[in-house]
Design brief:
The chain is α/β, with parallel strands linked by helices. The chain is built from six helices and five strands. Helix content is about 55%, strand content about 15%.
Amino acid sequence: MGINTQAYIIDPTVLLLYFIGNEDAKMVIESIIEEHAYGYILEPMLAELFQRMVEHFGYTVASSRLEAIKNSNIRLINVDFELIRDAGRIKASNPSMPMVYAYMIALAKKFNAIIVTADTRLRASDPNAKIEYINL
């Protein structure tokens, strides 16, 4: 991939939408799978995704899809000290913002990435943060 390749921070809902056939989510996720873009997701967010997939598809299907994500081009990001500090600073400036949003914004800044989400409540306090909304 080139130096100007697009990078995305993936909200777990976007992956769930991909698995149920949402066309907008499919375009983003397939661009990552086909190595036309980079994709990142925080490891703790996978627990939320897995729980939602179990509810929607059952344990066996959810497990195989979780394994597929692990083996895909979507990079799983651990929460490290730098990310904790950056997310905490964002949250401190926006006390009503859910912490998960602060982490996504911090990660987007770290990788100069676009946040891809279906949650229209997510608003970046930083004008440099870019968000792309997926229609449900």
